[in-house]
Specification:
Structural class: alpha/beta
Number of domains: 1
Helix content: 25-40%
């Protein structure tokens, strides 16, 4: 992975993010996207599936499932990206007539996340790696990003589609003709995760606290942080984007929860680890 860094005020900065499902982008990189859009960076989001297996929270939308839920979540994603200011979005494979389906997830006997035995044949986690990576490489060649962001090898928490997104992104960077300068993983440092869980035990959290013995952050989170994005100035946009994902997220600022009702903080700071490429002396673009 090579490339020249022509840093400076006139530089044409392009950032590409790869996420597994609608809402992942807002939860883990919402302030990063809004921050860079506000700074004039071209931000492109690639979403690998339409989240057809998501658990619907509002009772009035409980009838949605499968393709109907996927179509509804497409609309939610469009609203969320409008809140973040992102106008360049692609579903992986859509231009080629290829559609990857949400794989869903199951738990093993130890509480780990695994691929369900009845996952659909066209589930993203079952996709041919080079096929999916080739489609993403085509997007990289079109957008020509200096920086690409995706998950760490665990996918953050083990979801099969997140793990596949990691694998596909790394392979796509290898296959693309365009040379990406830096590839980053989304991480939550272990000390930050511990502090958040302590905060969520406070009585003002309207949701459930993290249960004792909940899984620790992934191993990648124990490594040094390469880049920190302080998005305090745009965290309101992240909150608005989360509200747009109404089938999946309940927002009670500064908290939110998914269908498990376990509280999380709408984090104004997001962290990244350099996975490959030229080390940066500052932000994602080395500024």
């Amino acid at each position: 992975m090579t490339g020249t860094d022509t840093s400076g005020a006139e530089r044409d900065r392009r950032l590409l993010l790869v996420h597994a499902h609608p809402d992942d982008e807002s939860i883990t990189t919402g302030v990063t996207m809004a921050h860079h859009v506000a700074a004039g960076t071209h931000v492109c989001l690639v979403t690998c599936t339409r989240g057809e297996q998501g658990e619907v929270i509002p009772p009035e939308l409980a009838h949605l499932s499968g393709p109907a839920l996927g179509a509804h979540r497409e609309g939610e994603l469009a609203e969320a990206l409008a809140e973040l200011g992102v106008s360049d979005h692609r579903f992986l494979g859509a231009d080629a007539g290829v559609r990857f389906v949400d794989s869903g997830m199951a738990l093993d006997g130890a509480g780990g996340v695994i691929l369900p035995v009845d996952a659909a044949p066209d589930a993203f986690a079952r996709a041919d790696l080079d096929l999916a990576a080739g489609l993403l490489a085509g997007v990289i060649d079109q957008v020509r990003p200096q920086v690409v962001i995706t998950y760490d090898p665990s996918g953050g928490y083990g979801h099969p589609d997140h793990v596949m997104a990691h694998r596909v992104t790394h392979r796509a960077v290898e296959l693309a003709e365009w040379s990406v300068e830096r590839l980053f993983w989304i991480i939550v440092p272990a000390d930050v995760a511990r502090a958040e869980r302590e905060r969520l035990a406070a009585p003002d959290n309207p949701f459930d606290p993290w249960p004792p013995g909940a899984p620790a952050p992934s191993a990648a989170a124990e490594a040094a942080v390469s880049v920190t994005i302080d998005g305090a100035a745009v965290v309101d946009r992240k909150a608005a984007a989360l509200r747009a994902h109404a089938t999946q997220v309940v927002v009670r600022e500064p908290f939110f929860a998914l269908s498990n009702r376990i509280g999380q903080l709408i984090a104004p700071i997001e962290y990244f680890r350099l996975a490959a490429g030229t080390p940066s002396s500052g932000g994602l673009f080395g500024e």
